[in-house]
Batch of 3 targets.
Target 1
Amino acid sequence: MAAETARYLTFTLNGESYALDIFHVKEILEYRSLTVVPMMPDFIRGVINLRGRAVPVIDLAIRFARGTTTVKRRTTIIIVHIRETALPDNEDGTPALTESGGGQDIGILVDAVNKVVTLDEGAMEPAPAFGAGIRADYISGMARRDDDFLIVLDVSRVLSISDMVSLGDLARGETPADVDAGTVPEPR
């Protein structure tokens, strides 16, 4: 029986190589100016107008606590589609997904997009429990490549809408208890 293969879009972020399943990628755009939206968490750099729709753009460097992406000639926005709802995770810890195929388009700001690669199951190793510099649950695996590894992201976890909403609440000084009780502190 042949090993299963999948295609991944590779990109760089702060000198590190990452990949995400091409299945989630809708399009790749040259960097364009963003409209900054007040009171958003730092990792949401702004929104772009994508054929009449406002699409939020997430800076993965900030999301991974690795500084801010500096806009250069090859800076790119990867548009991905996330089918997650704002529902909590399933009992087994997997993200809750909609049955209707709804969801949200989200832009990911990266230093540069490299190429699409095909990886088979044999090239993938499980996510490390530590040492990758980002949360282990953001990683679906590590792919061996030449003398190095390619960090394969679990895009549904990295861009978890419910997780980002929680982080946004905390960034504004709201605690989970405040949000649940409806007692949100006044902005400073």
Note: The chain has a mean pLDDT of 77.
Target 2
Amino acid sequence: MMNRFFYGTIKQSYLILVALLLITSVNKTNHSLMAQSASAVMTFKDSTYNFGDVAEERGSVVCNFGFKNTGNAPLVISRVTSDCGCTSPDWPREAIAPGESSVIKVAYNPLGRPGPFIKRVYIYSNSQNGMKALTIKGDVSTTSNHAGLMYPLVVGPLRLTDQKFIFPPVKRGSTHTMRIKSYNSDKSHPIKVHILHTPSFITLDKTEYEVGPIEPLEIPIHILKNKALSIKMHNEPLYFEVENYSGTKSKGNIIIVAPIVDDFAEYKSMEDILNGSPKLALNTYYDLGKVTSLNPQKIDIEIKNEGKKTLKIEDISCENPAIKHPRKIGPIKPGQSKTLTLEVLPQVIKEKGWKGISSNVNIICNDPSAPLRKVKVKINI
């Protein structure tokens, strides 16, 4: 009898313990679910603001981005950043209670920045939807027509900063990126830009772009990472087509210039370059002054190797048709010199209708400390 009572008591105690554990587990689960469901949510009515035409001389312009905490926990903004010093955000430092609203103010300073712009502001907070990006855009006009000076090349509605884009010296087998800057001058309609042909020494991310009204377009161009590229001053056109809203197409081109130089892989340190490399020495400025004769004018340039290894002149180039030059001159041993002879042609200058020229002759060599040299030649007629 006693055993039956003893075991019955134990069984009841066990069931009571299991029940208590289940209740505790359920309470913990409910608390966990409640904690998980309590979160802040930052909701904006609009994430883009278009200032339209912004007069440079009137100074900074400001817009407000209204938002609401649509979550069920306080919203705290930890920081707000922008992608340019010209853009200044201001935000509430106090917590925003659930259901409450507030604003983020964004100021843009147009001084010295004529032309179209797109800038972004990034908001970091405890919002469930993570980091939020806001966008401002517009077109800065100026009474001094700086925008026209910044974008002088016109192809249909597309405006570009230049007819020619020049890379810095790029080592063969490596790469470098430049951006072709332009914008759509049509204030009401988008345009399409199609790249028709690219220079043999570059690559593009894509060949078709759609640009909204008064929006900028930057086209990245990359030097081919190819060790087979010739060591020389590469100079080739990039052809493109601009299509407006009505389907009218305008064709244009720009010139891409890239000096490809040796990779200098044989030099492992600056000490190697200082103690065991060629070194080119020459005068880099020649002003012939006023010339009345139309006879060719010769310039003899002494090129001296002041280094420790043989100097090789890989390429000589000049885009000006009034300057004649050889493509190469032979190797120059350490301590020796050779003469590079240029011929300036006043007759060509006159035929072109120029009053004179001020042009560079480019020399690419195997001097690792300065593989590209420019010799300036000036003359008036």
Note: The chain is about 15% helix and 45% strand.
Target 3
Amino acid sequence: MLETVKLSKTFKDKKAVDEIDLYLQEGESVGLLGPNGAGKSTTISMISSLLKPTSGDVRLNGKSTIKDPSELRKVLGVVPQEIALYEELSALENLKFFGKIYQVKKDVLDNRIQEVLEMVGLKDRQKELVKTFSGGMKRRVNIAAALLHQPKIIILDEPTVGIDPQSRNHILETVKKLNEENGTTVLYTSHYMEEVEQLCNRVYIMDHGKVVASGSKSELLSILSSEDTIQVQLSKQSNELMKSIKGIEYVRQVEETNDGLRIICKKGSNILSDLVHATEILGIQISHYQVEVPSLEDVFLHLTGKTLRD
């Protein structure tokens, strides 16, 4: 339905996006992940026709949208990372304004506004000024604005950053309902891996402007089929122990946790024996040792060397 072909963007001497190929099939929910600076927002800006690429193409049903994005804009709703509302207007007034921008017919707009307000749980607050709303409520109005023209595709760029848990849950349920019940195609970026695991059928992982992996969740998890993830609880933390474990040849990643270490190593390696040896030398006790089932977070860490919130 929507695809990018070798999509690239250069700012001065910096290549922010480097020949990205991705696609969305009709009715899919697709995640786009990457650490800060990976190029996600730049990619989304180009896909949504807000930013012209340096090279490459964005195609809707096989037709380029670069020179003429009008057909794309008719079927696309975008929820930006930053709040895009008029704070001195009420939620209702904001939606009337955006409805006119989207050219929703007058005889349809009033009913449609009530439908989207109901969808985001703000029907009873519609006449209140946006400046009095919490961050979560503002983001919900942003989502309502993007849904006014009943888009076939919706792009959400980190829609749950810095909001309360209640609003976060409401947003996730709204996105899930849009995809599963309405058949809306979704492209979703987030700094919270559990959201992507909950909402998305396929995932693209970006780093340094490139797609470094893509596929279904099971396909991405298979990347770590040759590795084990070990969770170790310790009597105390130690930089010396971290250095010692990192120096072991078959250890790929070591991350400090609240009460110990998280170690990614070659499957079938003798990590327990080497770990016991290293802790005994430093007078540290192992209180718990567990081999974890791999998660998308493990795959992300393996591919980028960073946690999602870096």
Note: The mean pLDDT is 89.
